[in-house]
Design brief:
alpha+beta, six-stranded antiparallel beta sheet, four-stranded parallel beta sheet, 18 strands, 22% helix
Length: 360
Amino acid sequence: MELGEEPDGQWASAEDYAALYTGVARRVASLGPKVKLGGPSLQSFEDKLLTWPDAAGNRSWMNRFLKHIRSAGAPFDFFSFEFYPFDNICADAAPQLLEIPKRLGAMMSSLRADGVPSDIPWLITEYGYSVFSGRHEVDIEGALFTADTVGAFLTLGGAKPYLYGYEPNYLQNELKCSWGNLMMFQLNEKNDELHRLSTYYAAQLITKEWMQPINEPHEIFPVSVSSATPTSILSLDRERRTTKSPMRVDPKKLTASAVVTVYAVRRPDKQWALLAINKNPIHSARLSVQFKTHDAQEPLNFVGQVELIQFSRQQYAWHDDGPNGHPIRSLPPRHFTREASSSYELPPYSLTVLRGKLSD
């Protein structure tokens, strides 16, 4: 049970919310131990989550809330917040996409510094490109945002991220610059036609191809991407880590390490799966892969057959036509198999899952 709906953004004081939370916790306890209570569903923020100072000068909203519920002996079973990083939906998407891991990481680091415990589940109970509607949410950028947010959050120690916009919906133009919406399926007001949008395919790729669709633990490992010529080197450590202003970016000058993010999982079927995201809108990237483990003297590589699942503009294209906008190409990710190689190509603006087994 999540209690709260952006109390910080609605200027509720930490102490008032803590009093409400404590009262609810006492009632919930009477329902039995299986009911878990958490919150507060914080809104997105940058830098630090601050409020008016208390008598001691403490301006940390979360720190003050946690002190009050601890003094009252109220349980805090999970922590939740929302992630809508880009208010300016009218701006160019390319530089915004580069900021996703850094923004999410800074937000989580700030919350840990405010005292949110790391030994309880952290949940993003709503995430989306922006709180406003716009084209980036329904074009290919929506898929890139979804994959990067999920991969970064899990790698940073998050437990469960929940997409906002599961239900079918219509296009909107809130800021009068482009039409879009947070949705996986687009409804047509004139008929019963239903369009599958890029976020739908990203969700399928994450849950059915990168992850194994089974209720078993998946091991998440950190990845480093560094520029090299002509490839980028990807390395994994077998030790798990927990790890603003708009800018214009010339896609011709972007380096691979700036635009390629990769997330790694060891699945219950013992296969390694990499979720690679190329956020360059016009150029492909080449990725070479090495697995660096503590118990191997030399880096390991994929061996045998490697499955590749790719989603790019070859599968999805958006026709921008105001309120009549719709995808003119909406195909599932491309799925093919090839022999393990020294490098793999990532198309412009694409998601790629590389899945296979390692040498002995």
